[in-house]
Amino acid sequence: TLYFIIGVWSGFLGASMSLIIRTELGMVGSVIMDEQIYNSMVTAHAFLMIFFFIMPVAMGGFGNWLLPLMMNVADMAFPRLNNLSFWLVPVALLFMCLSLLVGLGAGTGWTVYPPLSNSVYHFGGSVDFAIFSLHVAGVSSILASINFITTCMKGKISYVLSLEYLTLFVWAMIVTSFLLL
Fold first, then answer.
1. Measured between alpha carbons, how far is 25 from 55 in angstroms, rounded to an integer?
2. Alpha-carbon torsion 92, 56, 163, 152, what sign?
3. What are the boundaries of each domain within the chain?
4. Residue 17 and residue 111: Cα distance in Å, rounded?
């Protein structure tokens, strides 16, 4: 449930940035902001929607809610690891929001390619905050993946389920978890 709350909150924050971007594009010339702030909004919008809306809701929310039910286990294999994995998400979100406030923000685009992300174009710490935020979110995803894989194997072994009888959602969580490792 907490994954859903933070995911929806991040989704609203990303959607509000999308409205600001669309307002800027809807008029001729720079009306609301300059080019650097516009690029920072596009970057933050992309990071928020991918790493703080889709990933927490799809993997964290639905994974923690449906995977134990489908595997017929009482809870995830490592509840404390699950707790740590969740609480890293707000920390990463805080660093992402801080990257907007430092300097003029990290206007690197969602790919963070070197021409825009090196020290020539961004001399402040905004890119550092954004990249550190993605690293913290990545650690959270890795910890959740370990927990999902272990929960699937624990449920499979304890109830003698064959892998061919698992639902498509469980297969998707297993494959995605292995890809995240």
1. 28
2. positive
3. 2-180
4. 18
Question: Tokens 């929310």 label which residue?
Answer: 61
Tokens (6 digits) for 62: 């639905």
Task: Give the length of the chain.
Answer: 181
pLDDT tens digit sequence for 84-119? 999 999 999 999 999 988 888 888 887 888 777 777
Q: pTM above 0.85?
A: yes
Q: How far apart (Å, rounded) are the C-alpha atoms in residues 19 and 71?
A: 41
For the ranges 29-33, 53-57, 129-133, which has the lowest average pLDDT? 29-33
Long-range interactions of 168-175: CB distance < 8 A, separation 24+ = 169/62, 169/66, 169/67, 169/70, 170/67, 170/70, 170/71, 173/59, 173/63, 173/67, 173/148, 174/148, 174/149
In angstroms, the Cα distances linking 170 to 3, 5, 43, 97, 165 are: 18, 23, 32, 33, 10
Tokens of 10: 């991040």
What tokens appear for 87 in the block?
A: 């609480």
